[in-house]
From TrEMBL:
Keyword Hydrolase: yes
Entry coiled-coil feature ranges: none
Organism, as annotated: Aminobacter ciceronei
Name of the molecule in the record: Succinylglutamate desuccinylase/Aspartoacylase catalytic domain-containing protein
Domain Succinylglutamate desuccinylase/Aspartoacylase catalytic: 31-240
Annotated keywords: Hydrolase, Metal-binding, Zinc
Length: 352
């Protein structure tokens, strides 16, 4: 395994950002290659600790000559966002300088050619420079995994429509609970930018049936535990074995996914009807019936009628909920995966 350090020039003289990059050269040029990054949103750490737990397995496989395909790992993809604090609170989601989400506005290329990406000499802000660099590092890999997390939630994947059900084995081997299928545009998120050049190619050349591109939501932002990280690392490792990047005859891989699968327009982003304190009655992973109590909003503490009940708009599965307990009117309280399309389905990306 080779370590190198990538440098991103900052927005003023004397400022630069660095992140580590690890590469293993596979023994076969025919084998699929894999790229894994975590913490594109600078303060999302479940993927970082999963990679930390994965690395010893990769080193062992490499020492035993079992890594067939090239593997590239970026454990912390966003040093700019990781360094942003506002009055002590992490601000890893949006670039404070440009107000742009770190997982939006990636360059959409017409073919998988890094020469199309802006070089370091092009004058642009550091967040855009970072996005171009990450895309450059990931482009050309058959498997591209972008590890994120939600507020509080189960483990789930966003998978482009074009790659499903061919990616069902990935979901099964990773051990996630749910898969959300999306198509079209998602604001040029990293996964969209990773797949886009291949969708422009003739289908035969694009080899979509063997391509893996996914945004992985490793539960909630505070789900950072050694045991969970180890289980997630095993899931990532199983995927790499299943797809032939790594050889390991001891590992049992799976082909069929038994979890929840739904198109993105089935997600109900149930909003709060008023401001107040949230009392949740459901946990991520729960199944609910239409009309079930999802939450109570304490709008006016102690007053008659000061509580407002929030009900499930349809039967479904609780994918996520908020980690904070104060809400404004209209803020989303949960992502509920409905059995039918949502009546106010939103197009494009949700929040990843
Ligand atoms: Zn994220």
């Amino acid at each position: 395994m080779e370590k190198s350090v990538e440098t991103i020039r900052g927005d003023s003289e004397g400022i630069a950002y660095e992140f580590a990059l690890y590469r293993i050269s596979g023994t076969s040029s025919e084998a699929p290659s894999a790229y894994i990054q975590a913490a594109l949103h600078g303060d999302e750490l479940p993927g970082v600790v999963a990679i930390d737990a994965l690395m010893p397995k990769l080193r062992k496989a490499e020492n035993e000559g079992r890594v067939r395909g090239n593997v590239t790992i970026v454990p912390r993809a966003n040093p700019i966002g990781a360094n942003q604090l506002l009055f002590g609170a992490s601000q890893g989601r949006f670039d404070l300088g440009t107000r742009v989400n770190y997982n939006r506005d990636f360059p959409l290329l017409d073919r998988p050619d890094t020469a199309l990406l802006p070089g370091d000499e092009v004058p642009m802000s550091s967040d855009r420079r970072l996005k171009a660099r990450l895309l450059k590092l990931s482009l050309g890999h058959d498997i591209v995994l972008d590890l994120h997390c939600d507020d509080e939630g189960v483990a789930y994947l966003y998978v482009p429509d074009e790659l499903w059900p061919a990616m069902a084995d990935c979901a099964a081997n990773m051990g996630v609970d749910a898969v959300i299928l999306w198509s079209g545009q998602s604001g040029s998120s990293f996964d969209e930018a990773s797949l886009h050049p291949y969708l422009k190619m003739p289908r035969k050349e694009a080899r979509l049936e063997s391509r893996v591109v996914t945004t992985v939501e490793y539960r909630g932002v505070s789900d950072v535990y050694a045991t969970v990280a180890e289980a997630d690392a095993q899931g990532l490792y199983r995927l790499l074995v299943a797809r032939g990047v790594i050889e390991d005859t001891w590992i049992e891989t799976q082909k069929t996914f038994a979890g929840v699968v739904a198109p993105i327009d089935h997600i109900e982003m149930v909003p709060a009807p008023c401001a107040g304190a949230i009392l949740y009655h459901v946990n991520p992973g729960d199944t609910v019936k239409a009309g079930a109590h999802i939450a109570t909003i304490v709008r006016a503490a102690g007053e008659d009628g000061g509580r407002v009940e929030v009900l499930a708009p349809q039967d479904g599965f609780i994918l996520t909920r908020r980690s904070h307990r104060a809400t404004r009117a209209g803020d989303d309280l949960v992502k509920l995966v409905g059995v039918a399309p949502s009546s106010d389905a939103r197009t494009g990306a949700l929040e990843a």
